[in-house]
Amino acid sequence: MTHHQTYIAGVKFRPGAAEILAGLDEAAAFDLVPEPQNIHDTNAVKIMHGDHHVGYVPRDLSAEVSRALSDNRVDKCCRRAGSKSGTGIEIHFTEGGRHGDPD
After folding, report:
1. HIRAN domain: from which residue to which, for each copy (predicted)?
2. Whole-prediction pTM value?
3. Among candidates 96, 23, 92, which has minimal Cα distance to 54?
């Protein structure tokens, strides 16, 4: 399994997102949702905590994460340990083909 440590982009543009993130514990999990209709980046991936859109996967990783989502290779997305602001995340990927399929 591979993973990326990164941050949640665009938090300052999401009303209430900073407060939500600051209140989460280190075990907090996030959902990643492709947003192909995004006019700024057709590979955009929203980061959700429950019903709250808290930001985006940074543009330099969005194409890779979008492909991994379409291939069902994203295992989890969680808060990065030690992230005081709550904007640090880890995205974990499974290897090979579609999640659950043999390589």
Report:
1. 1-99
2. 0.86
3. 23
